[in-house]
Amino acid sequence: MQNFLFCYGTLMVPEIINRVTQRSIQPGTPAKLQNFGCFKVRQQTFPGIRPANGKTTYGMLYQELTTADIEHLDRYEGYLYSRERVRVSAPTNDHTAWCYLIKPEYYPELLSDMWDYQHFLNVDLANFNRR
Question: How far apart (Å, rounded) are the C-alpha atoms in residues 19 and 110?
Answer without folding.
Answer: 26
